Amino acid sequence: MAKSAEDGEEVFAVDDSQDTLELDVLVGHIENIILSDEFVALRESFMHEHCHKFEDTEENKLEYTDIFTQYTKLIEGHIENELSSREKGFNMNAFQELISKSEAIDGEVFDLLLTFTDFLSFKDAMLEAKKSTEDGSARLLDLLQVTRLSS
Amino acid sequence: MGLHSILKKLKQKEHEVRLLMLGLDNAGKTTVVKRFCGEDISTISPTYGFNIKTVEHVVDKYEYKLNIWDVGGQSSLRSYWRNYFECTDGLIWVVDSADVDRLKDCQGELKKLLEEERLAGATLLVFANKQDLPEALSSEQIRDILDLNNLKTHHWYILPCSAVTGENLVAGIDWLIRDIAARIFTLD
Ligand SMILES: Nc1nc2c(ncn2[C@@H]2O[C@H](COP(=O)(O)OP(=O)(O)O)[C@@H](O)[C@H]2O)c(=O)[nH]1
Ligand SMILES: [Mg+2]
Fold this sequence. Notes:
The structure holds two protein chains of two kinds.
Chain A: H1 18-35, H2 37-50, H3 63-86, H4 92-101, H5 107-117, H6 119-150
Helix pairs in contact in A: 1-3, 2-3, 2-6
Chain B: H1 3-13, E1 16-22, H2 29-36, E2 50-59, E3 62-71, E4 90-96, H3 103-114, E5 123-129, H4 139-145, E6 156-160, H5 169-184
Parallel strand pairs in B: 1-3, 1-4, 4-5, 5-6
Antiparallel strand pairs in B: 2-3
The complex binds guanosine-5'-diphosphate and magnesium ion.
Magnesium ion is lined by residues 29-30, 47, 70, 72 of chain B.
Protein name (chain B): ADP-ribosylation factor-like protein 2
GO molecular function, one term (chain B): GTP binding
Family (chain B): Belongs to the small GTPase superfamily. Arf family.
């Protein structure tokens, strides 16, 4: 956010125009889409498939970029498809028009969306997924160990 | 035209700028970025992948969020550069001004980049780096070797600098941000 906006929260003009209404509807759809079980599952299965390739070092391997590209295509494709099926006559260009014209957009949904297209957020999520997979298998090993000892 | 470009629009509203650092290996790209970000520059090793630095930077009272991408420059890695062109607002080309033997190679690589369609809209900043070395060529000499005076397709600027002393790094980035801002942001 620009320094100049410090004097006050950027507030977008509230008007009753058709545009604002349509934008609200679309943002609502997006929210529903990215909070749906289907979307969460889609993301998780992608993460689990690739997270073992990620390492917690500052320098990134070139292969991360391919994985990231696949990821953004998957996410964007899913959201765009869902939008078209939820809103008859949905059109990306028109959506973009609406956004360009609006002063500011409600934060949360778009913050979340941005994390899907931001490489560093993606890398963090991959490292998290890797860690939880490893913790999971460590626990499983413990469990097996215990079973063996007690048998 | 997809969701991606919509999100890009939103980022512009937040004054986010994407900068791509390229140049031959050993030019000093990683050192420039680290020095600019105020980090330790004594333990930098050659880059085989890429680094991303996100840093807030104020120019003319506006705060910008810079995403600086620094990609390895070994000849075997140069074919991967294209994967980082998308959405680049500014290209920073770093030159080892003392590596006279490779300036021809350096000129050729830059020329190729400037023909890339996906970099067509990017502003070019050339850092004639390593000016602290006595054998370094001047930025005017580098400008002539890179044939910048004949470059009409991009806004460009060249500055002598040193990533070791820090000379002109901020001045160069400030120029770049101003040029980009004038193009893509409506400042009010
Ligand atoms: N003398 C001098 N050495 C520099 C300067 N910038 C970078 N170097 C050195 O050049 C070498 C390559 O730097 P590096 O940042 O790894 O180059 P990169 O391959 O372009 O990322 C390192 O040994 C740096 O210490 C500079 O301005 N002056
Ligand atoms: Mg490097």
